[in-house]
Write a structure and sequence with these properties.
Blueprint: H1 4-11, E1 19-24, H2 27-42, E2 49-54, E3 68-74, H3 83-92, E4 94-104, H4 110-121, E5 128-133, H5 136-148, H6 154-157, E6 160-166, H7 172-190
Parallel strand pairs: 1-2, 3-4
Antiparallel strand pairs: 4-6, 5-6
Helix pairs in contact: 3-7, 4-7
């Protein structure tokens, strides 16, 4: 609802040539994000060119994708039924050499399942290089919350940050492997 990661980066970006695409699958979220951009421009703290648009995750071939240098995804892997569409959308909208940064908690086994999907698509010729980023500040807060906050649940609250660097152009074989993996996983869990 707030696109805080993208807007925070945009505020600290001094290059006026930067383009920021803020996307969500819900129109109400887009209206909210458009208002955030409007208010930030009025306060003269947003210099980057911004475009807010609805973007539905899908596994179809994208005709004119955004070719992002950096794609940010926050707390989305808990939608396990949509892992194929999330991964394909992120990959097809990020340029080769660009990065996809994902920030989310584990949320049960949802992140593990998403990692398995990446491993599957990387099986033959790697598409993504994945690394987990750790930050002292996050670990310090995590320990503090564990000791002092009764409502803190690491599985749903502690952010994990992963950087996925796109190594090559995606192919139809990648798309099929992604869809088949999630479909097979879905059938296995129903049995």
């Amino acid at each position: 609802m707030a696109a805080l990661m993208g807007l925070s980066l945009a505020v600290h970006q001094n290059d006026r040539g930067v383009k920021l695409y803020i996307t969500d699958g819900q129109d109400s979220s887009m209206q909210n994000n458009k208002m955030h951009c409007h208010l930030m421009r009025a306060a003269a703290i947003l210099r980057a060119e911004t475009q807010c648009q609805v973007l539905m995750w899908n596994t179809e071939t994208v005709m004119e994708p955004i070719s992002a240098d950096l794609t940010l995804i926050a707390d989305c892997t808990h939608f396990t039924n949509y892992h194929a569409a999330l991964l394909w959308t992120a990959v097809s909208h990020t340029r080769v050499g660009g990065s996809i940064w994902m920030c989310q908690p584990d949320r049960g086994n949802s992140w593990r399942l998403f990692q398995q999907l990446i491993l599957r698509v990387n099986r033959n010729t790697p598409l993504l290089d994945v690394s987990e980023r750790t930050y002292h500040e996050i670990e310090t807060k995590h320990q503090d919350f564990l000791a002092n906050d009764l409502y803190y649940k690491p599985n749903i609250h502690k952010p994990r940050i992963f950087a996925l660097r796109k190594l090559r152009h995606e192919t139809e074989q990648d798309r099929i492997a992604i869809m088949e993996h999630v479909e097979r996983r879905s059938k296995t869990s129903q049995d």
